[in-house]
Amino acid sequence: MVSFLIHGSASCSKIDHGGEKKMFPAGMTRHKVCEIAIRVFRACTEMGIRTVAVYSEQDTGQMHRQKADEAYLIGRGLAPVAAYLHIPDIIKVAKENGVDAIHPGYGFLSESADFAQACADAGVRFVGPTPDTVRKMGDKVEARSLANGAGVPVVPGTDGPISCLQDAQAFAQTYGFPIIFKAAYGGGGRGMRVVREYEELEENYQRAYSEALTAFGNGALFVEKFIEKPRHIEVQILGDKYGNVIHLYERDCSIQRRHQKVVEIAPGFQLDPHLRDRLHSDAVNLAKQVGYENAGTVEFLVDKHGKHYFIEVNSRLQVEHTVTEEITDVDLVHAQLRVCEGRSLPELGLKQDKIRVNGCAIQCRVTTEDPARGFQPDTGRIELFPSSDLKPLCLQFSLLQTSHA
Fold first, then answer.
1. % helix, strand, coil for the chain, step of 5
2. 165-175 and 201-216 helices, crossing angle to 10°
3. Annotation says 207 is catalytic
4. Could you give the CA distance from residue 262 to residue 244 in angstroms, rounded to a whole number?
5. What span, in angstroms and rounded, lies between the C-alpha atoms of 185 and 176?
6. Closest CA to 230 of 302, 169, 178
7. Rounded mean pLDDT of 355-384?
8. What gap in Å lies between CA 227 and CA 162, rounded to an integer?
9. Hey, what domains does the chain have and what are their CATH numbers?
């Protein structure tokens, strides 16, 4: 592989006439986009791959543009989010500049089957699963069906997206409250509404539909029985093009607010050893059933009785991948790039019996919020940002002093 394009939260690679490697990340929004782009650039530099960045008109001064070997403007005249979602511009940059592969990082296009397919159609490698796998995992209803087929337990829920409020009412009558609405074609906590009594049903149905439509362009919802105070455990998986799949243990992401992860801990603490083994085996079996390749995360809920339920697969690199890297000494971005090149996991020395847990790691997310407005997201100018070496801490950021957060 020669070069990568990194679009905010995505990256891609390119081969030039000198046989030099190059990488381009493709995108997310603003600082979150920049942070993962810089992470991928670092891996590319270590591997001798040149990097290409794309940026919106509003992001000309962002750090990821400065860190790349090349950078190109996309989405002229568009807002940042729209620019980083503009697939034709990203593909155009990749083709015109000899980019060989695109790494989607995390963000809007990272789980877009259309984007993965556009890369394939353009002859550009997508650092992630195949378009078909991305599509199947992005459809939460189909993912549930595949989990069922693999013998993985799922939370009781509707067999497909509901078509009207009456479908939700019928489900509630069968299974009782509480229930939860979930976006059928998205995740990240958006389009999720918990309903605890009949009087709340219509209002939360409308809100969940509206949130899903705004976030994912599709308001389709499905309904599940809501599990009270569960643990949220996710298993990191890695597959290659030859059917090999391994797990790199689990992360506990139970500390959340507004359905958004706040603290991630690896490995999961105080997990029953038999439960841990079942989580790992279920994650690997599901991945093998769908022919999963590259990095991904299989997410589960664990109830107060220690019973686990599949909830979704994130077919991309997770924000919290760093804690897994810390405890396993496996560089997941390096592995992603090598798998994309066609290397097998055994070739990379990544065999299940060689993966060992080495200590514990905790990740905390820092966000800008206004306490006077109920801790709603806030923006402002960064006046002072000391970012000196804090080892053994790992600080990931894309901020510059005097930049806007």
1. 35, 25, 40
2. 120
3. no
4. 32
5. 25
6. 302
7. 87
8. 20
9. 3-127 (3.40.50.20), 156-225 (3.30.1490.20), 231-364 (3.30.470.20)
Alpha helices in 232-358 (DSSP H): 273-289, 321-328, 332-341
Per-residue confidence (pLDDT) for residue 228, from 0 to 100: 92
DSSP class of 157 = B
Q: What pLDDT, in 10s, does the model give residues 216-245?
A: 889 999 999 999 999 999 999 999 999 999
- The mean predicted confidence, pLDDT, of the chain is 88
Q: Is 238 in contact with 332 (CB distance < 8 Å)?
A: yes
Query: Can you tell me which residue has the tokens 């693999």?
Result: 150
State how far the alpha carbon of 19 is from the alpha carbons of 99, 179, 236, in Å.
12, 56, 33
CB 185 within 8 A of CB 212: yes
Does residue 346 have a cis peptide bond before it, meaning omega lies within 30 degrees of 0?
no
Q: Residue 258 CB: number of other CB atoms within 10 A?
A: 9
Q: Tokens 């791959």 appear where? A: 49
Report the pLDDT value the prediction gives residue 4, as an integer from 0 to 100: 60
- Asked, as a colleague might, if the bond just before 267 is cis with ω within 30 of 0, I would say yes
From the list 291, 34, 308, 30, the residue with the least C-alpha distance to 152 is: 308
**Active-site annotation holder among 257, 316, 343, 373:** 316
More confident position, 28 or 332: 332
d(CA 114, CA 282): 28
Q: Which two tokens stand for residue 207?
A: 């809100």
Helix (H, G, I), strand (E, B) or coil at 28: coil
The two structure tokens encoding residue 75: 């989405």
pLDDT digits (tens, 9 = 90+) for 105-149: 887 799 999 999 999 999 999 999 999 999 999 988 899 999 999
Torsion-angle region of residue 270: left (phi > 0), alpha (psi -120 to 50) or beta?
Answer: left
Reduce the DSSP state of residue 392 to 3 states and report it: coil
Q: Are 21 and 43 in contact (CB under 8 A)?
A: no
CA angle, 361 then 46 then 405, to 5°? 60
Taking CA 262 as the corner, what is the angle to CA 257 and CA 268, rounded to the nearest 5 degrees?
115
Is residue 351 exposed (0-12), middle (13-18) or buried (19+ Cβ within 10 Å)? exposed
Amino acid identity of 235? Answer: V
Residue with tokens 């149905």: 205
Confidence of residue 55 (pLDDT cuts 50, 70, 90): very high
Residue type, 119: C
